[in-house]
Specification:
Blueprint (H helix, E strand, L loop, with lengths): L2 H7 L2 H6 L6 E7 L2 E8 L2 E9 L2 H28 L2
Antiparallel strand pairs: 1-2, 2-3
Length: 83
């Protein structure tokens, strides 16, 4: 099992916990749908809704977080290397 497979096998809340030092999360379960809201310093950044399982909702949030943070890392790397 590779590192990515291990992360996906974690309980969905464990995956959110990995990012809790950077973001605040609100999880809402309403009428069988899972909604997750992402905030930072009181500012709404992103949300998803209507997922039928907690795992699907967390997967979508983690995809967004990884995409956003990958862009930040690339930008920081370019600044460090003077590109």
């Amino acid at each position: 099992m590779n590192n990515n497979e291990i992360k996906k096998a974690l309980h969905p809340f464990d995956r959110l916990e990995e990012w809790s030092n950077k973001y605040d999360f609100q999880v809402q379960i309403y009428d069988g749908d899972y909604n997750i809201y992402v905030e930072k310093d009181g500012v709404d950044l992103y949300s998803i809704g209507g997922e039928k399982t907690l795992k699907d909702a967390v997967d979508r949030i983690i995809e967004w977080i990884e995409r956003v943070n990958r862009k930040v890392l690339v930008t920081e790397d370019k600044e460090v290397h003077g590109e």
